[in-house]
Amino acid sequence: MSSPSIADTRFARRYGPWALITGASDGIVKACADAVAARGINVVLAARSSDRLHAVADELHAAHGVDTAVVATDFGVPSAPAMLAAQVSHLDIGLVVLAAASEPAARFVTCLWSANAR
Fold first, then answer.
1. CA-to-CA distance for 95 and 80, rounded, in angstroms?
2. pLDDT digit string (tens) for 66-103?
3. Which CATH architecture has domain 6-117?
C-alpha cells in the first residue's frame, strides 16, 4: 500500500468517503472498484454473488487499506434498488457506479436519493 498522490487525495475529497459500485464481482467493474479504492475511497460492492463480492472486498482492503461493505442482491428483482438503498442509507456515498442492473437506473437512483435525504 503506497501513499496517495495529490490527485488521489483530491479525488477522495471530492467523491469520498464511500462509493457504491454495482456489478463489481469481476471484469472491468472490478477494475473500476480497484481504481476507486486505490484513490482512498471506501467501497460498497453490490452484485448477486456474495462469495465473489467478499473475495473482491478482501482484495481491496488488503491492497488499499479501505473499508468495504458487501450487499448481495439480484438487480433483476424489482425490490432490489429499494433494499440496497436502505442498506447503505447510513453511509456518506459520493460516487455511484451502476454497472449491473436490469432495473432502470433512474428508479434505483431515486430510491438511493430518497433513502439518503431522510
1. 19
2. 999 999 988 888 888 889 989 999 999 999 998 875 54
3. 3-Layer(aba) Sandwich (3.40)
